[in-house]
Amino acid sequence: MFNTRSKQGLLLSAAFAVHCGAPQPTQDAAADSAADANVVTEASVADAAAAEASAPDAAAEGGVSHEGEVTRGRLVVADGRAATVQVWDLDTRTRVGMFSVTGPASAYGEREGTDGVGYLVQRAQNRTDVLSSGIVFHLHDTHYHLVKSAPTVLANRALTTMMPTHLSSHDGWSALFNDGDGTVTFMNDAQMLTGSPMLRTFSTGVAHHGAAMVAYGHLLSTIPDPMEPAMGATRLPVGLSWRDRANTMMEAGRAVGCPALHGNALGRNSAAAGCADGVLVLRWDSAMLRFTSQKIANPMDAPPSTRVGTLVGHHSLPVFIGNWGSQPAITIVDPAANGGAGSITPVLLPARPLGFALDSEGEKLFVLTLDGRLHRLNPTTGAADGAPLMAIPAYEMIPSGEGAVRPSIAVTGDRLYVNDPRDGTVREVDLEAWALGMPLMVGGAPASIRVLSMSPDFHAHEGHMH
Fold this sequence. Notes:
Methylamine Dehydrogenase, Chain H, mainly beta, about 5% helix, 37 strands, five-stranded mixed beta sheet, globular
């Protein structure tokens, strides 16, 4: 339910930044690799190795150049019907990993950052697998050098919890909400690649369909509705509470008055959550070291039962982007509008959105609509930026119901990806040319896609693609 973007970059690479040569595998990593018998086909490894050898910056001196290297990262593709997950290198357009898991998974993890940790959440199987992207960043002066290897699913890192559902990752920390018992499992991502990761658990006390995140040194988690008679994983929360990450026993504050809370995101010094009657915003006060809350009401002319239930944000943006119920529109949520009272402004579209995402700089908003078109918008005004692009064949209706799989969007530095579960493809869009490229032929029913390990300094050195 939370959608976040990394800001740490250089700091998170300190654990790996020991030199500019190739890293030596740790005993733990070697054991994890040996434990996984489903890593990748020999043909895929050979193709990837050949492509890596021809990459522009695979220079002398141990394959490391003395200029900054960047990568688009790797794309995790989880099948919506089969218990399989693939990993594709986005610089070479080759499949570098294919894994069997226990059930259809949802892929999570930070797009940018140097930890390279992904999470494969399998709600029905009460399991979350941990994946290493296979990209290691070495900090050298003011830039990174990269070393790539095959990704791995770390067999001895799997989490067993009750109905794990939503996971958020931000600034090197991830928080997994377990609907089945209302607990939160949170962890430092870099530690998940070490021999002794520290997992922490917090309980909200009641099973419900909630969410959590770690931000500004605090754990934020949903507050279950104390009055709703429906017990269990379908129960919706009514607000957010927060507590120091290191001392979750002591609540530091809470904000309620958000009925049927669903959909959350992190933005510029703030977090937002969708409510049945508006949007709840928590603003972090760095001087006072505390959150203050704000409730933004739905517009007076909102259609009945129309609400914001999905949100995205970006640390550089003063606004959040949300859906608008079943309407053919997205919304711009501006906490500072109307003299600080805030506003929720619908932006009409030609068809209902299937998915939307911001680029890595927070400068462009991309919306995929039911008619198969990809729209590029200004995220603060909603104004169209050029003509829409026909990305996939149109849908007659949005897939829904148990086991439904549907297209979604993932964005990296200069590329955007759209999965189409009907034909087993992931469509690639060149964002600079605003044109479709050759699709990735992944097969099956790709349903959840996630970029991991995009260079934090991609736009500073994108001429030096690895």
